[in-house]
C-alpha cells in the first residue's frame, strides 16, 4: 500500500477491524519511511449483474424492482413487510449465486412466482397475471385450476 504522504510503498498494518455494517475491513497503517499513519478500507469488489429483458435490452439488477412488484401483488393481503423483504433478499441472493454477469428476466420472474406461491396464493395469482400477461379469462382460469389442483395434493 502506497503512503499518501510520501508515496513510499512499504507500510505496516497496525490494526484491522470490520466496519459497522460488516461490508469492509478498516485498516490502520503506518508508513515505514515517514512514520505517518493513515486509514485504508478493503472491500470485496461486487460483480455487476445485468438483467437481459425479453426485447434484448440489458439493465443493472435492481432488487427494488422485485420489492415494488411483490408489494403490489401483496397489497391488502396479511403479509408483513419483513416477509416481503426477506423474499426479495432471497431472490437477490439466488441471482448473485448464479455467478453469471447476465441473468434473463424470465429466470427472475420464475423465482418470484415460486416464492410467492409458497407465501400467498392470491399474491401469486396477482403477480402471475401480470408476469405471464394473461390474454383472457380462460388463461386466468387455467392458472387458478393448476393452483387448486396443487393445493389438493
From TrEMBL:
Database matches in InterPro entries: ATP-cone_dom, NrdR-like_N, RNR_NrdR-like
Known cofactor(s): Zn(2+)
Mapped zinc finger ranges (unnamed): 3-34
Residue ranges constituting the ATP-cone domain according to the UniProt record: 49-139
Binding note for cofactor: Binds 1 zinc ion.
Alphabetically ordered keywords of this record: ATP-binding, DNA-binding, Metal-binding, Nucleotide-binding, Repressor, Transcription, Transcription regulation, Zinc, Zinc-finger
Presence of keyword Transcription: yes
Gene Ontology terms describing biological process: negative regulation of DNA-templated transcription
Pfam families: ATP-cone, Zn_ribbon_NrdR
Any one GO molecular-function label of the UniProt entry: ATP binding
The family this protein is said to belong to: Belongs to the NrdR family.
Function in brief: Negatively regulates transcription of bacterial ribonucleotide reductase nrd genes and operons by binding to NrdR-boxes.
Protein name as annotated: Transcriptional repressor NrdR
Organism: Caloramator australicus RC3
Amino acid at each position: 500500500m502506497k503512503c499518501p504522504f510520501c508515496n513510499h510503498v512499504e507500510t505496516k498494518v497496525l490494526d484491522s477491524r470490520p466496519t459497522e455494517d460488516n461490508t469492509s475491513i478498516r485498516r490502520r497503517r503506518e508508513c515505514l519511511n515517514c512514520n505517518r499513519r493513515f486509514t485504508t478500507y478493503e472491500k470485496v469488489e461486487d460483480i455487476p449483474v445485468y438483467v437481459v429483458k425479453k426485447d434484448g435490452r440489458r439493465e443493472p439488477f435492481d432488487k427494488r424492482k422485485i420489492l415494488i412488484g411483490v408489494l403490489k401483488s401483496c397489497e391488502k393481503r396479511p403479509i408483513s413487510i419483513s416477509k416481503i423483504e426477506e423474499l426479495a433478499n432471497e431472490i437477490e441472493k439466488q441471482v448473485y449465486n448464479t455467478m453469471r454477469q447476465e441473468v434473463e428476466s424470465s429466470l427472475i420472474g420464475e423465482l418470484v412466482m415460486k416464492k410467492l406461491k409458497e407465501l400467498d396464493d392470491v399474491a401469486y395469482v396477482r403477480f402471475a397475471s401480470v408476469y405471464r400477461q394473461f390474454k383472457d379469462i380462460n388463461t386466468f382460469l387455467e392458472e387458478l385450476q393448476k393452483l387448486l389442483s396443487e393445493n389438493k395434493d
